[in-house]
Prior knowledge:
alpha/beta; 9-stranded mixed β-sheet; 6-stranded parallel β-sheet
Amino acid sequence: MTTSKLRWGILGCAAIAKGSFIPGVRLSRTGFIQAIASRNFDKAKETAKAFDIPTYYGSYAELLEDKDIDAVYIPLPNHLHTEWTIRAAAAGKHVLCEKPIALNAAEALRMVEECEKAKVCLAEAFMFRHHPRYQIMKELIESGEIGELRNIHGTYTYNHADKKGNVRFKRAMGGGSIYDIGCYPINAARFILGQEPVAATVQAFFSPDHDDVDMMATGLIEFPNNVALSFDCSMWASPRNTLEILGTTGRIQAHSAFVSRPNPSSHFFIINVKEMREMVVPYENPYALQADDFAYGVWGVKPPRFEPMDSVRSMRVIDACLKSARENIRVSIESE
């Protein structure tokens, strides 16, 4: 059954909700922000007024009781994703949960199972993969545009090391660069290759000044057919945000690879021995595209682009990366 708009509730007043998700839903064809909740009633009220949201609550549980909400977006700290996804499912709400979906694959699988039991949709908010340039890049590779694929290299770094109160620097809350941003090149490589990796080897810098989370990590993710993803991610380094896909006769380079803004991130470059040409992709807000894909899945208009089990597979890779970094070993990744 379809309705004119999917009515969203937001659990928490996180910066990503205010700066990206709410504007994205408002640009979507399908969504409407019905309510927002915070553990601080005044904060919820202030945010609701700032964004013209009709309803606000001083607790997440109250929002889940609201019968005028169809789906919830969860931008809470990582360690709260499992609890509130399961509680939302039990309340009959469909769930879009921020990345990483959980702290490990076992939690992610439990979330998938509980949502299936409650007959609600579940998706992980990797918005970048909804941008059309990723599908275009994948099709170019499959067409042989850059020859036989040899390697993918991704970077995602920034420097917020001075903000020591940030949840990203709290180990028990799911802090660390692999959880926060290393997951992006990992997810991109899985999407581009259409395969699951077989092993991970990661070296990381764990900072005692930041609750021993990985402030910098460099990894090698092995895929079948002798192709690998090399990546680095950091919360204490000069900013970078790139993806390079290397083939035998050319390569694809994307700048601002995981954060999409109208310019210049809606383009990428194809480079070979004869030329470098720019591929300009008409800009579309990836948060709006993500919201529409989710709504169509809820309404049964068409299947979602990414099934819930994709998130479990993603977490298996992250589990392997963290184990490798902590124990200084190569870790095999289990298959289904």
